[in-house]
UniProtKB/TrEMBL annotation:
Coiled coil: none annotated. GO terms for molecular function: hydrolase activity. SUPFAM superfamilies: alpha/beta-Hydrolases. InterPro entries: AB_hydrolase_fold, RBBP9/YdeN. It comes from the Bacteria. Pfam families: Ser_hydrolase (PF06821). This is Alpha/beta hydrolase. Keywords: Hydrolase.
C-alpha cells in the first residue's frame, strides 16, 4: 500500500515556477509511484488567513488512511501545527515534516496573529507523532533559529540542518525524501 502524503504549501505566489511548486515536482519525481502525494491549493496564498487555510487543510484530510504523512512548507507547516494542536483530526497521522516553518510571535518580524500557537501547544499534539524539522543553515527568509526554537518547543522532534541558504528548495531536498522513505507506517 502506498504511503499517503498531504503537502501544505508555503505562502506567496504558487504558479508553476514559484512557491512550493519546485519542491512538489521534486517529490513527485523522486517518490513517484511509492506515494500518493496530495497538495491542495491553499486559498489566497499571498494574503493568507488561518481560518481559510484551516478549512482547506481539513478538506485535504478527506479519505486519508491511517498513518498518513503530513508535510508543511514554511507557512504550511505553521498551519499544520496550529490545526493539529487545536483540533482532534482523524485519521491518525504517522509523521509531521516541517520545512522552513516560522515560529510566529518569536519576534516582531514574525507576528501574524492568526497563525500563533497557543501556549503549551505541544502537549495537545497527537500522541506518538514523529516530527521532523528541516531548515537551511543560512535561510534568508526563515532563519535557522526558527528550527532551533521548534526543537526546543517540541523536544521529541528531530532537527536537520541543511547546508546552504535555500528556503524554497526548488532543486529538491534529498534529506526529506530519505526521511519519507524511512517512515514506517504504524
Amino acid at each position: 500500500m502506498k504511503k499517503q502524503i498531504l503537502f501544505v504549501h508555503s505562502a506567496g505566489p504558487q504558479n508553476e515556477t514559484q512557491g512550493s511548486s519546485g519542491l512538489i515536482r521534486y517529490l513527485e519525481k523522486e517518490l513517484g509511484g511509492e506515494v500518493e502525494l496530495r497538495h491542495p491549493a491553499m486559498p489566497d496564498p499571498e494574503n493568507p488567513v488561518y481560518a481559510d487555510w484551516e478549512r482547506q487543510i481539513i478538506e485535504g484530510f478527506t479519505d486519508l488512511r491511517e498513518d498518513a504523512i503530513l508535510i508543511g512548507h514554511s507557512l504550511g507547516g505553521s498551519a499544520l501545527l496550529k490545526l493539529l494542536s487545536e483540533e482532534k483530526m482523524e485519521p491518525r497521522i504517522s509523521a509531521l515534516l516541517l520545512i522552513a516553518s516560522p515560529v510566529w510571535g518569536m519576534n516582531t518580524d514574525w507576528d501574524k496573529e492568526d497563525f500563533l500557537l497557543a501556549p503549551g501547544f505541544s502537549s495537545k499534539l497527537p500522541e506518538n507523532l514523529d516530527i521532523f524539522l528541516f531548515y537551511s543553515a543560512h535561510d534568508n527568509v526563515v532563519a535557522f533559529k526558527h528550527g532551533a526554537k521548534y526543537a526546543e518547543l517540541l523536544p521529541s522532534a528531530r532537527l536537520k540542518q541543511i547546508p546552504g541558504n535555500s528556503h524554497l528548495f526548488e532543486n529538491g531536498l534529498p534529506e526529506l525524501v530519505e526521511e519519507i522513505k524511512r517512515i514506517k507506517l504504524k
